[in-house]
Amino acid sequence: MSLTIDPGIWVAALFTLAIFSFLYKDNPVYKFAEHLLVGVSAGYYLVQYFFSAVYKKLYVPVFINGEYWLIVGGILGIMMFARLSRRSEWVSRYPVAFYVAAWAGYVIPSYIQVRILQQVKSTMFNPFAMSIQEALSATVLLVGVITTLLYFYFSAEHKGGLKHVSRIGITFLMIGFGATFGYNVMGRVSLLIGRFQFLMTDWLGIIQ
Amino acid sequence: MTFFERMMSIDRRIIFLFVALAVAIPLLRPLGFPVQVSEEVRSFHKEMAALEEGDIIMLTFDYEGDVMAELDPMAIAVLKDVFPRGVKVVALTTYAGGTGIAENHLREAAEVYGKTYGVDYVFLGYNPDWSGTILRLGESFKKTYPTDQYGKNTNDIPIMQEVETYDDIELICSIAGSALSEYWAIWAGGRYGVKVISGNTAIQAVLIYPYYQAGQIPGFLGGLKGAAEYEKLIDEPGMGIRGMDAQSIAHALMLVFILVGNIGYFFSRRAKREELRKG
After folding, report:
1. Is A108 helix (H, G, I), strand (E, B) or coil?
2. Share of chain B above pLDDT 70, in %
3. Do residues B198 and B208 lie in contact, with contact meaning Cβ atoms separated by under 8 Å?
4. What does the angle CA A145 – CA A151 – CA A155 come to, to the nearest 5 degrees?
5. Cα–Cα distance between A31 and A21 in angstroms, integer?
6. In chain B, what residues touch A110 (CB-CB under 8 Å)?
7. How far apart are alpha carbons A123 and A144 in whole angstroms?
8. Which residue ranges make up each domain of chain A?
9. How far apart are CA B262 and CA B256, in angstroms?
10. Which of A188, B87, B233, B246 is deepest in the core (most CB within 10 A)?
């Protein structure tokens, strides 16, 4: 065991323990750590955003490089602050409208291409051009996509054949939710492992 | 309270204690459980292994401190894989909190493998608005990032002389704690045709499978397990492999608790029904 003398690691370790103390019950030490985290984060992000957005993307191009057309973006940004007063709130609708329109233009064609067309294409297959295992896998995928889509078909009552098919669809959904839950557990445990590795390696030095 | 009712209402602090022990003990006394490599990780490795000396990749640190435990091992493993083979790295982050993380890993790996900043790798830093950044990089890296993280003009950085658009890089490796990998695949991959592979948190990984299946993301690492598998493939054991024993024991413990809770529920419900029947 070789306890570190690095003050940064000591601070991180003690705050980790302070946050862990909540697992026993809420307490002032936890509250202090939580509030400090919020405060430090707010300060950090304010500086980062100001430097990377206002300074690097507006001040430098406009006032140093002479790209004056960027002032339009700056004015739209300033107009967003009009939301702070109820009387001038309407002014902020213009930059919001501009942003929504630009965003929709960005997103709609790309999403249709990548999230719908290419995904649908990947469900189409030629069973004679693949191994039995691949064909079986592709068939399961196709059945899963069709039955799940039919589960969300609400223009006809789910009875008779549609009821059975949508039951298969919901089974696929349940398997999907189960996998998501499993991955969730794995993710949370990984975060705990990360903290324990930090405490045992960097702070206490009991594992190499 | 009956025995079965007690099974359903174990104090959460006892569960926390058991989970803590399940994680701590295997870290102190590794059990050496085997790490099986999944198909998606093998595909990720295949894409990386195809890179040759002098190739340039883009490594994006799309995460912040909250998911370092899962994603740091991936980022470190990627650098350990590419730097010794002479593959160059253009790194950036789409998260304001990702700058410190990226700087640390790049600097440490560069020191170990003797890489020179600006020649073998560059860190472009954080750029606000990830969607605009992804799209604009397809038109010009230098216009999107007129300066690197340290304020140096990108026109004066040697590695950036070789990079103008996505056409000049072999692939994008997005290490992401959110849906950013999907967006790289949608905009950089879908619109500009650049290959995108990813490392994702376990929670996000389940959403990457459709992209993997459709070939839009030809390989990915899912959670700490994905990192461990990749470390195994490149023969560089690190934080991923070290955490796998703890992960397995903790998962087994979860299963035990789920079983205990369900058995308690099943039998206490049966006992209540019998009580009702007897009147």
Report:
1. helix
2. 100
3. yes
4. 120
5. 10
6. 186-187, 190-191
7. 10
8. 130-203
9. 10
10. B246
DSSP class of B89: E
The C-alpha atoms of residue A89 and residue A164 are separated, in whole angstroms, by 53
**Is the CB of residue B236 less than 8 Å from the CB of residue B77?**
yes
Place B216 in a pLDDT band, splitting at 50, 70 and 90.
very high
Ordered alpha helix ranges (H), B29-161: 39-49, 68-82, 98-113, 130-137, 141-144
Does the CA dihedral B76-B77-B79-B84 come out positive or negative? positive
**pTM of the predicted protein model:** 0.89
Tokens found for residue B65: 């401190």
Structure ipTM over 0.95, yes or no: no
Q: Which segments in chain A show pLDDT lower than 50?
A: none
> Which of B67, B213, B247 is nearest residue A186 as measured by Cβ atoms?
B247
How many angstroms separate the CA of residue A68 from the nearest CA in chain B? 16
> How does pLDDT run across A31-47, given as a tens digit for each residue?
999 999 999 999 999 99
Q: Are A189 and B72 in contact (CB under 8 A)?
A: no
- Picking from A57, A118, A183, the nearest residue to B214 by CB comes out as A118
Q: How far from the centroid of its chain's Cα atoms is residue B71's Cα?
A: 4
The CA distance from B96 to B65, in Å, is 11
